[in-house]
Amino acid sequence: MALIAIAADKGSPGVTTAAVALAAVWPRRVLLAETDPAGGDLVYRSAAAHGGPLNPNTGMLSIAATARRGLVPDQLWDHVQPLSGGLEVLVGLGVAEQATGLAGLWPTLGHAFASLADSPNAPADVIADCGRVSGETPAVELFPHAALVLLVSRTEPEALARVRDRAAALSTKLHGGPRGAATLATPLIGVVLIADPSSSAKLVNQVNDMLVHAQTGARVVGTVADDPAGADQLAGRKRGRLDKSLLIRSARKVTADLHQQYGAAWAVPAQQGHAGAGR
Length: 279
Known about the structure:
This protein has helices at residues 15-24, 42-45, 60-67, 106-115, 157-175, 200-213, 228-234, 246-262, and strands spanning 3-8, 30-34, 81-82, 88-90, 125-132, 148-153, 188-195, 219-225. By secondary structure, it is of the alpha/beta class. Strand 6, helix 5 and strand 7 form a beta-alpha-beta unit.
């Protein structure tokens, strides 16, 4: 099973852009789920496969009624919409007030997301865009079901300090206390930096040293290029060769590294079901 939860502490680090970019180049069939309780962005920024807008009522909002009666992983596909590039998405809530309809259902959703890779009919990994998280955010209830929790951060000193503290808090919540960097606990906690590619290598070493010193149990798993033009192309706001953008090239490297390190644990064969960027 492979549920990958992507989140950030605060600010606007680009969680949705990173999640879409990673999903677009994921090497197996993948479902991108917008699970931010504050509401999703894709319905505003992306077109559906038929060229029109995405249906805001089909996705996390519609799945709430199904989940209250129990949720079989394959039922997730009944609430999925394809984007114009072929990426399959579970559209998020429209406004934060709708999150009350999911009260008590987050563990059920987490189990269904994690179990989708084991489906005998339509297996897929799930990348969950959880938005900004805090101790009270209900999306955190997805994390115990995840194989990997990725915290997205920009590189300003205050952003790095926040991601260090958030990683430590999550390690305590999920693993029972701070752990050394070599400890393989589940879910693994990783950090994805939104950075200038020219300075990313040195920065990764510095941030890893900080995470180890703080005994967070987390480490940097890769960097996604700070590429506004690529982000506009990904959102359909700008034309261009998306597969040649720094954003997609860096996302492709992150996914390749993740599968090289953890792919054996995610070895359930999955059907190739979408034509993401660069496919």
